[in-house]
Amino acid sequence: MDTRKLKYFLAVVDHDGFNRAAEHLLIAQPSLSQTIAGLEKELGVPLFHRIGRRAVLSEAGKELVGPARLVMRDLDAAQSAVRALQGVRSGKLDIVSMPSPGIEPLTSMIASFTELHPSIRLSVSAAFTPEEVIQSVRTGSTEIGLAGSPNPIRVPGVQVLELERQPLILIVNPHADTFGETESIRREDLGGHRLVASQRGSLMRWLVDDAMARGVEIEIVVEVAHRTSILPLVLAGVGHAVMPAAWAPTARKAGLQTLLIEPVAYLDVAILSRKEDLTPAARAFLKVAERHVAHETDTGTIRSIG
Question: 0.85 cut: is pTM over it?
Answer without folding.
Answer: no
